Amino acid sequence: MIGVERYTKAKYEAFRYRCQAKVWQKGLFALSIAFLTGAMAQVRVVLPWSPVPITLQTFVVLLSGVLLGKKWGAISQALYVGIGVLGMPWFTGYNSGLQALVGPTGGYIVGFILSAFLIGYFTDTYGKSRSFFPMLGLMLFANFIIIYGLGIAQLSLYLSWIKGVKISLPTLFWMGVIPFISGDLTKAIAAAAIARTIAPKQSYK
């Protein structure tokens, strides 16, 4: 029981610290998450029928809002996007530059920022969201509605406007959604379990 009480207190103190940290400290936290997102973008599986690879970066994205809150979680992903556009080769496949945002994966990348903000908002605002099933539902929404929604919208525009390819909706989903469902579901479950473990139940703000 003493060990549980110490762990519960440690979780509370850690989250309270990240809320009360100085701006430069929060900036370093956000930059660290941005680097981790870039590192996980290189763990990828290329699909021969799709320009969108399977990566591990969404796992970091889903946890960024939990770890840093809505503002700094979103900033961490904005840093990932902005620094990558400026030339850091940490988009998937060690790519960089503005072309990554107008390419087939640009919508997914932009969705990272909104997803981190959403998860961070609920994590910081509603204590009940830090339980496993509410957090899982939140992460599934962020992943499959926000990231996938923006992702396939951008993929459709890329294929039709830039590549000049007319594509049916089923084919679009086969390229940009279906191959990733099982992996992203697994990542969401793992991320929700971690969030449930590390996030305190009591208010820390």
Please tell me about this protein's structure.
It is built from 8 helices and 2 strands. A hairpin with an 8-residue loop joins β1 (44-45) and β2 (54-55). α6 (132-162) packs antiparallel against α8. With 205 residues, it is an all-alpha fold. The mean pLDDT is 91. It has a single domain (2-198), classed as Arp2/3 complex 21 kDa subunit ARPC3 (Orthogonal Bundle), CATH 1.10.1760. Helices cover 73% and strands 2% of the residues. The chain has helices at residues 2-20, 23-41, 57-86, 99-102, 106-125, 132-162, 169-176, 181-198; strands at residues 44-45, 54-55. It has a two-stranded antiparallel ribbon with strand order 1-2.
The largest beta-sheet arranges its strands as 1-2
Strand residues, percent: under 5%
Mean pLDDT across every amino acid position: 91
How many domain regions? Answer: 1
Uncertain regions spanning at least 5 consecutive residues: none
- Class based on secondary structure composition and strand pairing: mainly alpha
Please state the second-level CATH architecture. Orthogonal Bundle
- Helical proportion, percent range: over 70%
Largest sheet: 2 strands, antiparallel
Distance between the termini: 26 Å
* Rg from alpha-carbon coordinates: 18 Å
Order of helices and strands: HHEEHHHHHH
